[in-house]
Amino acid sequence: RQVHGELILSYATEHSRMSAEKHGVDSYQSAKEFFAGCLGGISQVFIGQPFDIMKVRLVTSNQYKGMGDAFRQILSQEGPLAFYKGSVAPLIGVGAAVSIQFGVVEKTKRFFQVI
Fold it and tell me: What is the distance of C-alpha 94 from the center of its chain?
């Protein structure tokens, strides 16, 4: 019985290795795709967070005349780091979400190329 189990495991391992080679998928491809998605999500937060801060301030306060005024006042009164207040949670959440989306899309594309 143990010999049969080892033969089945050996066959399955060899079959998956040959399948990956046949379709041009190296063992690190999915990890690279998820990592790229994570970097994309983090970049999205770093670029969009200042606009979100200004939007929230404009909606919740009457002290700003417009987007440019909000930018100038926040920058002069609170400094440049004020545009990134509360950005840790979005960094984690958006980074993870975009990572999963990117990885799943790329894996799905590879799956349908094989079919």
Answer: 6
pLDDT tens digits for the chain (115 residues)?
444 445 554 554 555 555 555 555 565 788 888 888 889 999 999 999 999 999 999 999 999 999 999 999 999 999 999 999 999 999 999 989 999 898 888 888 888 887 6
The model's pTM? 0.67
Contact 91, 47 (CB under 8 A): no
Distance CA 113, CA 57 (A): 47
Residue 76, classed as helix, strand or coil, is helix
CA gyration radius for the chain?
24
HSE, CB side, 13 Å, CA atoms: give it for residue 12.
6
CA distance 23 to 93: 33
By three-state DSSP, how is residue 95 classified? helix
